[in-house]
Amino acid sequence: xxxxxxxxxxxxxxxxxxxxxxxxxxxxxxxxxxxxxxxxxxxxxxxxxxxxxxxxxxxxxxxxxxxxxxxxxxxxxxxxxxxxxxxxxxxxxxxxxxxxxxxxxxxxxxxxxxxxxxxxxxxxxxxxxxxxxxxxxxxxxxx
Length: 143
Fold this sequence. Notes:
Blueprint: H1 24-31, E1 36-39, E2 46-47, E3 64-67, E4 71-80, E5 94-101, E6 105-112, E7 123-127, E8 137-140
Parallel strand pairs: 6-8
Antiparallel strand pairs: 1-2, 1-3, 4-5, 4-7, 5-6, 7-8
């Protein structure tokens, strides 16, 4: 994951996330096809992106890792017709969006499916397609 103020160079190749210490378990899970998030043991709030303390209650207890079921709904989305770099030109149009997972946390990711089938509150399920850079990708659930 990128630190604040850092940007990946993706003009010629797919961007590679810069992994922080707090996010190591998340990325290890992604490599295994598992979607992980943190939960505060004090207030039970879901935490993402990964942190060393809870940003909601600051109780001081270390967040614990949980596996997400990977199901959620589209909270917001954008269909990209003109990609920001040539890396994604062959994929256009494609959809990126903010997904609200059923465990009450959000993840910004690609959403596979026809642009005309995208809709706010549409149900999605995470998948982990084989790619050079492993990333979670959401697929539209059957209506």
